[in-house]
Amino acid sequence: MKITGSKLTRRATLAGGLSALAAPAIAQSRRKITLVYGVPTIDSSADGFFASIPLGMGYYAEEGLEVEIQTVAGAAAAINLLISGQAQFATHGTGGLFPAVSKGIPVTGFCCQVPEAFTSVAVLKDGPIQRFEDLKGKTIGISAIGGAPTFTLNTVMRNLGWDPAKDVEMIAVGAALPAFDALKRGRVQALVEWDTIFALFEFNGGAFRYFRPEPMPKFGFQHCSNTMVSTIEKDPALVAGMARALAKSVVTMAAAPPEELAKLHFKMFPASRPTTMSDADVMRLDGLRLAARKQFMRLPERVFDRSEKIGDIDYSKVSDMRDLLFAGGEITAALPVERYFTKQFVETMNGIDVAEIIARAKALRV
Asked: Which of 29, 112, 155, 325 has most Cβ atoms within 10 angstroms of its Cβ?
């Protein structure tokens, strides 16, 4: 799937709904670049912080950028496009960044959009399991065996003195409605998924009791945008421009009316709009997904009270995730935290006029 930023931004402008916001950037001569997303689909406004918001609001264009967004199956595929020079930037979960860096690939994160762990363990709310400890001896469904969620769950069990190989059975159930069906039918007694997936299940009638036992809350640094170290060295102005656009998008995600963000998403990505659902249900599902994602982005601290910096991440969160993956055998080297994330562009991201962007976001009408 390819989405070309210039065409979408122009189409939004001519449609009238965003003309006051995007029009000043249209006449600029812009540099063409590619941003690749390590997931096959862009389903909702929960992904707006790199997609519909900077495209529709003209934030990429304001930085002199014409951004094409490509989607691929997995972070490894996204990073391969960086390595080959077919893309300048990638954005995805950090479960794909760590293995690449640990193998010596000179890629690094420069903007962390989701700093908190968004994976949870859930059971049916009306079921017999009241505590995570009640899952000993039970079967747990996980999106895929291997990767950060698996090793996070293993760490939780070891913290309780359990043997992950003996005290539970883990089976792969995917990250779509069949996983929810497996829980309802009793094939598994719990699910390990992430925020927007549980929002989908709740939309389809799910009522859950959520567990986030220690040390799950420690494992942040969940989603960031990345580039090659050589790009930073040769063209830091390009990375700075992308960083500013992404920072503006985080502010807009925090401040804009959720229903307008949903409209903006479907305007930019019309193919993602479900065709078998009513307009009301489409908006309700998108609202659930957006709310689920926002709760892990620390938007009050980053945007409104400014006690934390937009796009930044505490290096302790990086080291916690690194150590988790290293202990689980997912990575073969535990490198210095600076190799996984650079703070070079943090001040750039926080030099934007946050108050002005909040005002623009609140006034958004699509």
From this structure: 112
CA 292 – CA 210 distance, rounded (Å): 13
The neighbouring-strand residues paired with 93 are 223
Instruction: For residues 130 and 231, state if they share a domain.
Output: no
Distances (CA, A) of 50 to 223, 242, 246, 252, 362: 11, 10, 6, 11, 19
- Write out pLDDT tens, residues 232-267: 999 999 999 999 999 999 999 999 999 999 999 999
Q: What residue numbers bound the domain in which 263 lies?
A: 2-116+220-362
Q: What is the C-alpha separation between 231 and 219, in angstroms, rounded?
A: 28
Cα of 274 vs its chain's centroid, Å: 21
0.70 exceeded by pTM: yes
Whose CA is closest to 40, among 75, 8, 5?
A: 75
**CA distance to 71, 93, 366, per residue, from 12 (Å):** 21, 29, 9
The torsion angles phi and psi of 65, rounded to 5 degrees, stand at: -115, 140
Q: Which amino acid appears at position 337 of this protein?
A: V
Type of residue at 206? G
Q: Which residues pair with 291 in a beta bridge?
A: none
pLDDT, averaged across the chain: 90
Which of 218, 238, 264 is a domain's end point? 218
Q: What angle do CA 180, 183, 189 make, to 5 degrees?
A: 145
Query: Do residues 240 and 327 share a domain?
Result: yes
CA 162 to chain centre: 31
Calpha distance 366→262 (Å, rounded)? 9
- Please give the tally of structural domains in the chain: 2
* 168 phi and psi angles, rounded to 5 deg: -140, 165
Closest by CA position to 214, among listed 152, 269, 164: 152
- 184, 218, 252 — which closes off a domain? 218
